[in-house]
Write a structure and sequence with these properties.
The complex is a heterotrimer of chains A (362), B (200) and C (277).
Chain A (H helix, E strand, L loop, with lengths): L1 H11 L5 E7 L7 E7 L6 E8 L6 E7 L4 E5 L6 E9 L2 E4 L18 H22 L13 H13 L3 E4 L8 H20 L3 E5 L4 H15 L11 E3 L4 H15 L3 E5 L6 H10 L3 E6 L5 H7 L2 E4 L2 H10 L2 H29 L4 H4 L4
Parallel strand pairs in A: 8-9, 8-11, 9-10, 11-12, 12-13
Antiparallel strand pairs in A: 1-2, 2-5, 3-4, 3-6, 6-7
Chain B lengths: L1 H17 L7 H37 L6 H11 L11 H31 L6 H16 L8 H44 L5
Helix pairs in contact in B: 1-2, 1-6, 3-4, 5-6
Chain C lengths: L2 H6 L3 H17 L10 H11 L6 E7 L5 H17 L3 E6 L2 H18 L7 E6 L4 H9 L1 H4 L24 E8 L5 H9 L6 E5 L4 H9 L5 E4 H11 L5 H4 L1 H32 L1
Parallel strand pairs in C: 1-2, 1-4, 2-3, 4-5, 5-6
Helix pairs in contact in C: 2-12, 4-5, 4-10, 6-8
The chains are: A alpha/beta (362), B mainly alpha (200), C alpha/beta (277).
Chain lengths: 362, 200, 277
């Protein structure tokens, strides 16, 4: 009997978690303390016990599973606490040593992201400087984007044929940069089309993008003194479903037979279906997207394709708007810096110097 | 019984859509319109049950959390776009969405898609792959530099960059062909297995 | 009209029929072509193999029925692998449609492996918000998902006992067909919290995610039906991924022939036009 009791006790003797550390959660807004520990091989789970000073009693806060080695406790800023991490297995348990006193406070600066801050600072400085220069009327050079001439050609052709122009502003939301660039280009195309009295059909997948499109086309028509050309019904919402939208646009292409199709913005798997159907109708097709994996289909099935950032560049080039132009120049210089860092980094790493890598890790 | 009816409907609609490959026809039009209608209805319900209800109506009206009046007001402001005279009000919540997303994504994007990717490019030039990686990245960056005309040596480097891009696009195209064939296989398997029971 | 001109204007429907036959015939009469396992698929397999029985894996079902032929077999493969190793699974979705497909995979294999809902696996359901949901989970999972997909409080399920954040999971696997999906998981779970992330994605997306793999931000990657077939090969069973591989290979070969043929015709036609000029 004694042997059984001894064996049971031996079995139940479990080790507490080791290396329990407690600290104010770094880089946060306060109100939390982080506790970490090395797991105990015997644990079924751990109970977190907390004591707020000047109390002298530990109270259970939570229970976490055996895989957990980190617990973030929500506390009151400025109050001092001590913790015990208890290994539990069935009814047996083993407590760690009580931790040192700890209290939480908020941090203004996230030290782990200094490099990100520097990156953002450099980028925004360049961006704002170029926008400033552009607004002051300084001439900022942007190379001509191949394929942009085709825009006028396509609208001209539609006018000659008496057929509409189809404009797809991508399938993404208004917060997508590609959508914003596309909307800039839509303004330009709508203006050209309005001059010639050509219809511009804009089917939308996003309910928020649709009113913006309506506004842009309406303003374009007013700008060129042709408010009569504007037809609100031509800029409409279809459905949020990706392939439902695609099927509908395919139907429009086959029934309305637009002379020119523009696919500019963010696209996903529907890109090939749209471009392929458009090509089969014989329309001039101009596409542009920053979705890398959709570009191949546009390149093969369209007459002209704006690759990646060319879409933004085209938007800036066409609008000559200081904000877009300045942003583009800012991005250009950021790319130059990144390119320089890559060249320098590769040379250094090739000669065995690794400190450079540390600059990019958080 | 219901499963069989479902399979038959799915199979017939699949055939209606496939008929488009021959030419546009009333069967395709029927399936297309049905799909658009069903999906529009589905997303309307989805937004109500999964977005509006749990994120706005429940916290505001059931749990009585007053802070949720803010999203309610922003939402109503968005809807005001439907009233032409005061449609400008909808620009404010729109600006809020764009601003919040831009701010939230900037840091994570810069960290994940810029810093970590740059780090992954910094490899010693000791293998063929690392040389290809380095040349591809730098020449690609040159192609996307818009402040200089693509002429002379600079133009040559940019041209090299576009070649790299085209090769990458080729690989990407190959993957998509694979994806499209996979979808066709999926549909054919459904028709042959679930509908016709020809294959096991 | 010369032969070259005729071939240039060949009716595309002939190609459609050829591709259909290239897919249907191998499905009816399988050949059993060998499937080679690529390092990205091996990476995901190894990451799961390294986990101890009883550990937990987080699965995010971020796809929909339109990409089911590609992504669902991967989903089945990973669930099968985990169940066979007695690894517990916690599912969730950033896409509402994915949650139901994930549940279907769970139910299908739970019966085969004798697994119990709430003890061996659970489905937390869908939550709108994409990246914000992942960030919230990193802080507190029970607060982000207080109920499972059927509306039952997660406190009632033993599998969720003690689960607070990503620490409880040895690995997170995202089955994705777009955004939000793998990118968001890498951004938050890996980049911010150092969690191992694996992915099963559509073939269209695969090239865009190889840089993440190369940068070590993903432990493994299954791309398209081929990725699913590779995983099935590693698990030594024939699923829908493997079954489609014959059709896939033959259709690809036919497409390669078409590409070569099309280019030859194009160059002959161009030479003829130049001669005319």
């Amino acid at each position: 009997m004694t042997t059984i009791v001894l064996l049971t006790l031996l079995y139940l003797q479990i080790s507490p978690p080791k290396d329990v550390r407690v600290f104010d959660t770094p880089n946060d807004a306060g109100g939390s303390i982080t506790i970490t520990w090395e797991s105990s091989p015997d644990a079924e789970g751990y109970r977190i016990l907390r004591m707020a000073l000047p109390d002298s009693v530990y109270t259970p806060v939570d229970w976490v599973d055996a895989a957990t080695k980190r617990y973030v406790d929500k506390v009151e800023d400025g109050v001092k606490y001590r913790y015990i991490i208890r290994t539990e297995r069935g009814s047996a348990y083993a407590d760690s040593e009580p931790t040192d006193e700890v209290w939480s406070h908020g941090n203004v600066f996230h030290r782990g992201r200094t490099n990100v801050l520097i990156g953002v600072a450099v980028y925004t400085t360049l961006l704002l400087s170029f926008i400033y220069f552009a607004k002051r009327g300084k001439k900022l050079f942007v190379r001509k984007i191949a394929g942009l001439d085709a825009v006028d050609e396509a609208i001209g052709r539609a006018t000659e044929m008496g057929k509409p122009v189809l404009y797809i502003p991508g399938l993404s939301t208004i917060s997508d940069v590609a959508t914003l660039a596309s909307l800039n280009i839509l303004g330009r195309i709508a203006r050209k089309a309005a001059v010639h009295g050509t219809r511009v059909i804009v089917p939308n997948r996003n309910p928020i993008v649709m009113p913006v499109c309506q506004e842009i086309v309406r303003e374009a028509c007013l700008d060129v003194g042709r408010p009569d050309v504007y037809r609100e019904d031509d800029i409409f919402y279809i459905t949020f479903s990706q392939f439902g939208y695609t099927a509908a646009v395919d139907g429009i292409m086959l029934r309305e037979k637009p002379a020119a199709n523009f696919f500019l913005g963010m696209f996903w798997a529907e890109s090939l279906i749209l471009a392929e159907t458009g090509a089969s109708t014989g329309a001039i097709q101009i596409a542009g997207t920053d979705a890398i994996h959709q570009l191949p289909f546009f390149i093969t099935a369209c007459d002209y394709t704006l690759i990646g950032e060319e879409l933004y560049a085209a938007s800036a080039y066409l609008s000559r708007e200081p904000l877009s132009l300045g942003s583009l120049k800012g991005q250009d210089w950021t790319k130059l810096i990144i390119g320089g860092l890559i060249v320098a980094g590769v040379i250094l790493v090739s000669f065995g110097s690794d400190w450079f890598l540390g600059l990019f890790s958080s | 019984m219901f499963e069989t009816i479902g399979i038959w409907i799915a199979a017939l609609l699949t055939l209606c859509i496939f008929s488009f490959l021959y030419k546009d026809n009333p069967f395709y039009k029927f399936a297309e319109h049905l799909f658009i209608g069903v999906s529009a209805g589905y997303w309307a319900c989805y937004y109500y049950h999964n977005v509006l209800q749990p994120n706005l109506f429940v916290p505001l009206f059931q749990e009585g959390r007053p802070i949720f009046i803010i999203p309610l007001v922003l939402g109503i402001m968005m809807l005001l776009h439907l009233v032409p005279k005061i449609s400008w009000i909808s620009r404010w919540p729109l600006a809020f969405i764009v601003g919040t997303y831009a701010g939230y994504y900037l840091i994570t994007y810069l960290q994940t898609n810029a810093l970590e990717q740059v780090t992954a490019t910094l490899v010693p030039l000791v293998t063929f792959s690392s040389v290809v990686l380095f040349v591809g990245v730098t020449t690609g960056l040159v192609y996307f530099f818009f402040s200089k005309e693509h002429k002379g040596t600079f133009g040559g480097i940019a041209k090299f960059g576009i070649w790299f891009l085209m090769i990458a696009f080729g690989a990407s195209f190959g993957y998509t062909v694979m994806a499209r064939i996979s979808l066709l296989i999926g549909r054919m398997t459904f028709l042959l297995k679930d509908w016709l029971h020809i294959i096991q | 009209m010369s032969i070259v001109d005729r071939l240039k204007t060949i009716d595309r429907r002939i190609i459609f029929v050829a591709i259909s036959l290239a897919v249907i015939i191998p499905l009816l009469f399988p050949i059993g072509l060998p499937i080679m396992v690529s390092p990205p698929a091996q990476g995901l397999y190894d990451a799961i193999e390294e986990l101890k029985p009883g550990s937990k894996v987080l699965l995010s079902f971020d796809y929909d029925p339109s990409t089911m032929p590609e992504v669902y077999p991967m989903n089945l493969g990973v669930v099968r692998h985990c169940f066979s190793k007695n690894i517990k699974l916690v599912g969730m979705g950033l896409w509402p449609t994915g949650v139901l497909l994930g549940q279907e995979a769970f139910e299908l294999l739970a019966e085969e492996y004798g697994k119990t809902y709430g003890e061996d696996y659970i489905n937390l359901g869908f939550k709108a918000g994409g990246i914000v949901v992942i960030s919230a989970m990193a802080e507190n999972i029970p607060e982000t998902f207080p109920e499972d997909y059927a509306g039952t409080s997660i406190e009632e399920f033993p599998i969720m006992k003690g689960v607070k954040n990503f620490d409880s999971f040895g690995l997170a696997v995202c089955f994705s067909a777009g955004d939000p999906g793998v990118r968001e998981w890498v951004m938050i779970a890996h980049s911010r919290y150092g969690k191992k992330v694996g992915a099963g994605i559509t073939a269209v997306m695969a090239p865009a995610y190889y840089p993440y793999l190369q940068a070590g931000q993903l432990v493994g990657l299954l791309g398209g039906m081929k990725g699913a077939a590779e995983y099935e090969t590693l698990l030594k069973y024939k699923g829908t991924g493997s079954a489609g591989m014959d059709a896939q290979s033959i259709a690809h070969s036919l497409i390669i022939v078409f590409i070569i043929f099309g280019n030859v015709i194009y160059f002959i036609a161009r030479r003829k036009e130049r001669k005319k000029v």
